Amino acid sequence: MLGLSVRSFVRKVCANNAVQCYQLKYLAVSTRCNTLSRLNVRREKYTDASKYKGGKLAGQRQKAIASDNDQFPAEDDETLEERNNRAELIDDREYDTVASSAMHVTKQILNVQHVVIIQPYIKWGPRKNPTKPELLLQEAEALVRSLPRWNIELSMKIPVETLDKRQLFGSGKLDELKNIIQTRQESGTPLTCVFISKGTLTYSQKQTLEQAFRLPVMDRYSVVVQILRLHAVSMEAKLQVALAELPYIWSQVKDQEGSSKGSGRIFLSDSQRQMLQLRERKLRNELTAIRSHRELLRNRRRQKNFPVVAVVGYTNAGKTSLIKALTEEQSLQPRDQLFATLDVTAHAGLLPCKLEVLYMDTVGFMADIPTGLIECFVATLEDAMLADVIVHVQDMAHDNCTEQRAHVERTLGKLMHNGERSLSPERIINVGNKIDLVPDPTCLVIEREGDKQPDYGRLHLISSQTLVGVHELLLEVERRVLMVTGRQRIVIRVPMGGAEMAWLYKNGAVTETAADPDNAERLLVNVVITEAKLQQFRHLFIRKRN
Ligand SMILES: Nc1nc2c(ncn2[C@@H]2O[C@H](COP(=O)(O)OP(=O)(O)OP(=O)(O)O)[C@@H](O)[C@H]2O)c(=O)[nH]1
Ligand SMILES: [Mg+2]
């Protein structure tokens, strides 16, 4: 009889929604999401401290989130000596001398630069670039524009036979480029460096080009390092960037030693070599400490039982913007720059069913970045890979969207391969962002349907800026979170003012309460809860009563 009355309550509230019921004598109806949530689907801001006044539980949640985002280690855990050691590692003059000659990176990142961009591409043969040269050049320009005072004075794409020759360009092409640069300089353009948009240039390639152009030459590795240095805010990110620089320096030194005409420009003395080796050891030790701290935070998060949703994607796809749209957190600052986000940060959000989740903002992916450079950031991506649900954000307005998507999927596949969790399709939500910039977004859907992907691979079209599609996406996030974490929505009948109610608030997400129409002393509580917690509830309250 109790079950029936509860069913009729749910029927009344949920109108036409399919409701799955099961009778637990005292415990009542299970509704697999998508039901009462419609009554209360307002998105709520979840980082406004004023909301937590007086709410003990809420205060604890904020603390958990804050401690996740703290720079490592938390201020009060860190001794002055540790802090000084880390600062010294970042600010080391002897190292800076070596780094600036090997990479042309300087501490004065904010100095004005007048840049010539040259995008080499292989036009024919099996090693031909899969991406159009115009798109490669666009990405090179976006990299330079990510550095605030770097101006693009000239940009060109140049066909080459191979990228591995000792001389990147044939002598005719090199003369042609030299003349173009000289003419520009003679006409009064103050050029200060040449950016060759290739992952890493060998020492001899660089030397030949510098001699020809009489300007410092940079490759993608060194430009990306500049951007990373600029955007690294936390000590962890700074240490990671510092570590990322070392393989490049060693590779330049090695190249030079193998080169017959090494001019000794980056010749390293024994003491400099020792300094680099010691620096690498120290950086690795510090980062190992950070990793174990991350592990600790992860375990704390697990204990608190927050479902975690990682937001990943190509750099500049709109990951930070999407999290801002989902959580309405004003402090998040999306920027039209590559690698704007360098720290994995956690942001609390509320699903329509009122379940709290943590969204993890992550470092963006980019093609043609040497593995050594991105490897150092893998530690920060580990958290993302262990998330319950992964949202893959794609920039639908980008001409190279398909390639970007494939690159992220390949990288995710590799990361998962090394990790603890498999990349099962139900954990991934594909999101097509920036549709406000696409003239006819319906074409995108037709194209994707043509892929005959399973339902999980469906692309959710949204705009993080206009918020079109964001609410539907939120419902999908909810559906996946409940499915992957084994949570369910149920209605439980409990005595008014009893211990049951407090227990449910503590161990589940109570979404709604209503007076029981059949019994004035009872409440009907709508709660999202895991199977394990439900068993605990049965054990604690139902069996006891029997
Ligand atoms: N028009 C439009 N612009 C968007 C949208 N989403 C993001 N943007 C813009 O795209 C740029 C990059 O946004 P972010 O959110 O910083 O991108 P991200 O993926 O976090 O970038 P990284 O952290 O650098 O990897 C910013 O200028 C945003 O304002 C959208 O839906 N529409
Ligand atoms: Mg970002």
From TrEMBL:
<dbReference type="Pfam" id="PF13167">
    <property type="entry name" value="GTP-bdg_N"/>
</dbReference>
<keyword id="KW-0460">Magnesium</keyword>
<keyword id="KW-0342">GTP-binding</keyword>
<dbReference type="InterPro" id="IPR042108">
    <property type="entry name" value="GTPase_HflX_N_sf"/>
</dbReference>
<dbReference type="Pfam" id="PF16360">
    <property type="entry name" value="GTP-bdg_M"/>
</dbReference>
<protein>
    <recommendedName>
        <fullName>Hflx-type G domain-containing protein</fullName>
    </recommendedName>
</protein>
<dbReference type="InterPro" id="IPR016496">
    <property type="entry name" value="GTPase_HflX"/>
</dbReference>
<keyword id="KW-0547">Nucleotide-binding</keyword>
<feature type="region of interest" description="Disordered">
    <location>
        <begin position="59"/>
        <end position="81"/>
    </location>
</feature>
<dbReference type="InterPro" id="IPR032305">
    <property type="entry name" value="GTP-bd_M"/>
</dbReference>
<dbReference type="InterPro" id="IPR006073">
    <property type="entry name" value="GTP-bd"/>
</dbReference>
<dbReference type="GO" id="GO:0046872">
    <property type="term" value="F:metal ion binding"/>
</dbReference>
<dbReference type="InterPro" id="IPR030394">
    <property type="entry name" value="G_HFLX_dom"/>
</dbReference>
<dbReference type="GO" id="GO:0005525">
    <property type="term" value="F:GTP binding"/>
</dbReference>
<dbReference type="GO" id="GO:0005737">
    <property type="term" value="C:cytoplasm"/>
</dbReference>
<feature type="domain" description="Hflx-type G">
    <location>
        <begin position="307"/>
        <end position="485"/>
    </location>
</feature>
<dbReference type="Pfam" id="PF01926">
    <property type="entry name" value="MMR_HSR1"/>
</dbReference>
<dbReference type="InterPro" id="IPR025121">
    <property type="entry name" value="GTPase_HflX_N"/>
</dbReference>
<dbReference type="InterPro" id="IPR027417">
    <property type="entry name" value="P-loop_NTPase"/>
</dbReference>
<dbReference type="GO" id="GO:0043022">
    <property type="term" value="F:ribosome binding"/>
</dbReference>
<keyword id="KW-0479">Metal-binding</keyword>
